[in-house]
């Protein structure tokens, strides 16, 4: 009897334990299910929030690219706009066929001058790997160009070759020039003789290189700072201007067999009363122009026997608007002068000094470079992403005036006939540009 009661109690206790275990399992299962449902709901809510956020992001207005600065003028021949960065330098080839431009978009562009008057302006692109060029100059044979690298602080040469389809391709030389300058280089040029390259730094140093990257000479200008330096088209002279009111000119001398000899001080251009911003040569190297902080530009006769202590002649002083970094350019034939002041551009008759054309707000930033083409037809300027190409009407007018003077003086019928034909052609070209009758 007692045994039976004990068994019964054991069975009841076992049943209770089983019931409790089942109840606990059910509760755990229910909690797990609720947690899973809660996690799914949270994930769904998170996904929905992410989707809404993404949709809102997609609906945000895109940042628009900066608008190109617009400029128009009756004498504007064209605007070249392929660069995506600020154009810092331009240069015409000696054969007159090409214009090179460099910008901080890591490219150099080569433009065909025969396309300047067309609606579309195609260009060929050369990439400057891992750097960008601040200066560009064509070689004398127009088959290569050199660049000054902003980060590399050195010269890189690119060779130009024609492909089967007559387009050009560009190949960088295997090695860049060694780094020698300690300051920022602001000017670079190649002598038309092909004998040397010049680079000038704000730290007042000028280096004369051969075309293989060897340093031939180093010049210290003692001007505190240099604002500009140039090589004469004859390949003999290097001129530098800066903080002082004098422009200093040196002769780079070579032997008869073409070996480098020495650099000698040639002459100074003295006459400005303040620092000189820029200088330029005519194509025959017999004329120079300078623009100064004193608010004038000057025309000089540099065809002198400096070895006999003959100084250059000051031909003309003309008041003009200037600003920090003003540029000046003299047309190859010496008949026209262009001066920049900030974003504005002024064109003068070199012989009379008369201001003939004014162009305001040509670029969105200060003008960085000015250059006439070798045929005296165009003047180009840079200052933002666009390159402006202007008709050189001042040059046309001056050429007509000069030929009319020669016509009156001439007694040879053949010469008179040729001059009259040239005058007629120049007047027709001028009339086509400005649409008025030339006097």
From TrEMBL:
User: Which InterPro entries does the UniProt record give?
Assistant: WBSCR13, WD40/YVTN_repeat-like_dom_sf, WD40_PAC1, WD40_repeat_CS, WD40_repeat_dom_sf, WD40_rpt
Regions of compositional bias (Basic residues) in chain numbering: 51-63
Query: Cross-referenced SUPFAM superfamilies, in alphabetical order?
Result: WD40 repeat-like (SSF50978)
Q: Which PROSITE patterns match?
A: WD_REPEATS_1, WD_REPEATS_2, WD_REPEATS_REGION
Parts of the chain that traverse the membrane: 6-24
Q: Which Pfam families match?
A: WD40
Name a GO CC annotation attached to this entry: endoplasmic reticulum
Q: Does the record carry ATP-binding as a key word?
A: no
Determine the domain of life of the protein's source. Eukaryota
Region (Disordered), start-end ranges: 29-73
Gene3D superfamilies to which the protein is assigned, alphabetical: YVTN repeat-like/Quinoprotein amine dehydrogenase
**According to the UniProt entry, where is the signal peptide?**
none
- What processes in GO biological process is this protein linked to? endoplasmic reticulum unfolded protein response
Protein name per Swiss-Prot or TrEMBL: Transducin beta-like protein 2
Listed A to Z, the keywords are: Membrane, Repeat, Transmembrane, Transmembrane helix, WD repeat
Question: Where would I find the WD repeats?
Answer: 80-112, 178-212, 269-301
């Amino acid at each position: 009897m007692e045994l039976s009661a004990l068994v019964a109690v054991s069975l009841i206790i076992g049943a209770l334990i089983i019931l409790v275990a089942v109840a606990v399992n059910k509760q755990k299962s229910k909690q797990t299910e609720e947690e899973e449902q809660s996690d799914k709901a949270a994930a769904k809510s998170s996904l929905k929030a992410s989707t809404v956020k993404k949709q809102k992001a997609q609906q945000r207005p895109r940042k628009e690219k900066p608008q190109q600065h617009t400029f128009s003028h009756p004498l504007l021949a064209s605007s070249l706009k392929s660069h995506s960065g600020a154009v810092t330098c331009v240069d015409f080839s000696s054969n007159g066929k090409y214009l090179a431009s460099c910008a901080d978009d890591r490219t150099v562009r080569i433009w065909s001058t025969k396309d300047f008057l067309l609606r579309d302006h195609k260009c060929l692109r050369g990439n400057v790997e891992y750097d960008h060029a601040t200066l560009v100059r064509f070689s004398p044979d127009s088959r290569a160009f050199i660049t000054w690298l902003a980060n590399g602080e050195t010269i890189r040469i690119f060779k130009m070759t024609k492909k089967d389809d007559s387009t050009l391709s560009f190949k960088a030389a295997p090695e860049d020039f060694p780094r020698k300058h300690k300051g920022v280089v602001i000017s670079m040029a190649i002598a038309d003789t092909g004998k040397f390259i010049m680079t000038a730094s704000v730290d007042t140093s000028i280096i004369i290189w051969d075309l293989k990257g060897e340093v031939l000479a180093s010049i210290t200008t003692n001007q505190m700072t240099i604002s500009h330096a140039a090589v004469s088209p004859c390949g003999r002279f290097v001129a530098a201007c800066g903080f002082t009111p004098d422009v200093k000119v040196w002769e780079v001398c070579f032997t008869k067999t073409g070996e480098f000899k020495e650099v000698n001080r040639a002459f100074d251009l003295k006459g400005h009363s303040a620092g000189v911003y820029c200088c330029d040569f005519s194509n025959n190297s017999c004329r120079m122009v300078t623009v100064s902080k004193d608010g004038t530009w000057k025309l000089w006769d540099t065809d002198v026997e400096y070895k006999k202590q003959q100084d250059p002649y000051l031909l003309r002083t003309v008041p003009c608007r200037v600003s920090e970094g003003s540029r000046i350019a003299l047309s190859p034939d010496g008949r026209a002068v262009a001066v920049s002041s900030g974003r504005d551009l002024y064109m003068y008759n070199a012989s009379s000094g008369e201001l003939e054309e004014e162009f305001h707000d040509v670029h969105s930033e200060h003008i960085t470079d000015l250059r006439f083409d070798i045929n005296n037809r165009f003047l180009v300027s840079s200052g933002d992403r666009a390159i402006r190409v202007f008709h050189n009407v001042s040059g046309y007018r001056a050429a007509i005036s000069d030929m009319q003077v020669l016509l009156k003086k001439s007694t040879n019928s053949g010469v008179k006939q040729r001059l009259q034909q040239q005058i007629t052609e120049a007047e027709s070209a001028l009339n086509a540009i400005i649409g008025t009758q030339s006097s």
